[in-house]
Amino acid sequence: MLSNPYGVLYNPYSIQEVFNHLLGHRKLDEKDLVQHSGLWHSYLHHGSFSESDKSVLLEKIETVRQKSVEFLKKADFLFITFGTAWVYELNTSKRIVSNCHKVPAKEFKRFRLASCDITDEFGMLLQRLEELNPKLKVIFTLSPIRHLKDGPVENTLSKSLLSVSIHELVNSFTQCDYFPSYELVMDDLRDYLFYAEDMTHLSTQAIEYIFERFSNAFFKKETVSQMKQIEKLQKAIAHRPFNPETDTHQKFLLNTKEGITAILKKFPNQNWDHELEIIEKQIVK
């Protein structure tokens, strides 16, 4: 599995720009970099890429690009999440940025993408992805995280535009599908209790609910069963008793160790060394 190597992205334009760069349709050079607070940054990349030497930054970017495109060629699924239709455009170059890198707000113009622009750009991208990897299935999702800094009305309008764009793409390309994470929160859960204290991000309970629905939609039954076994074992290992030397807890440890051994027989490629070490330290010899 490979998470977006360029960092978390929210708007569709930046997402397709990343893929254009990955596929070699968009080259990066020194004109794409900005120096701020003693470091060189790329407006297309997360701050973890930033370097004091711009040549080192460009080299790091190219190394990640090459590794990522090779992974993409062999991937079976690609999950793309749209978060907001609002974007920030650099005044000097008129280029939409993925990360502002704390450059003053006066250097940017903020505006909302149009649905037709999103579908046009992503339509061309999906064709290029199919040429690169014909077996690749693309799953779109719409983030239920609220962008309340844009304002509640603007956030709702933004989500609506993104939803329309996604469904037009799914209806136009057979390799595309949609997972309704947004609708699960808005229509199934329907309660502020399922948001975190900031009322913007999701609570742990909401995340677990969405992941359960996701697992049932995309994973085989054997995989779901294995995940439940692993989760049970992880909870057992995390358990901290008041009296670890009692017969009851010692038996509990041995049962947990047997459970790990059974998992390893089925899936020998898994690594449980750390967990087994924790158990061994607690077993009374």
Write a concise keyword list for the protein shown above.
285 residues; alpha/beta; 2 domains; three-stranded parallel β-sheet; three-stranded antiparallel β-sheet; 9 helices; 8 strands; globular
Description:
By secondary structure, this protein is an alpha/beta fold. The chain has 2 domains: 1-179, no CATH class; 219-285, no CATH class. The protein contains 9 helices and 8 strands. It has helices at 12-22, 54-74, 115-132, 152-172, 181-189, 204-218, 221-238, 247-266, 273-282, and strands at 33-36, 39-42, 77-82, 86-90, 96-97, 108-112, 137-142, 176-178. The strands form 3 sheets. A 3-stranded parallel beta sheet has the order 3-7-8, covered by helices on one side.
What can be said about this structure in brief?
It is built from nine helices and eight strands.
Q: Helices and strands in order, then pairings?
A:
Elements: H1 12-22, E1 33-36, E2 39-42, H2 54-74, E3 77-82, E4 86-90, E5 96-97, E6 108-112, H3 115-132, E7 137-142, H4 152-172, E8 176-178, H5 181-189, H6 204-218, H7 221-238, H8 247-266, H9 273-282
Parallel strand pairs: 3-7, 7-8
Antiparallel strand pairs: 1-2, 4-5, 4-6
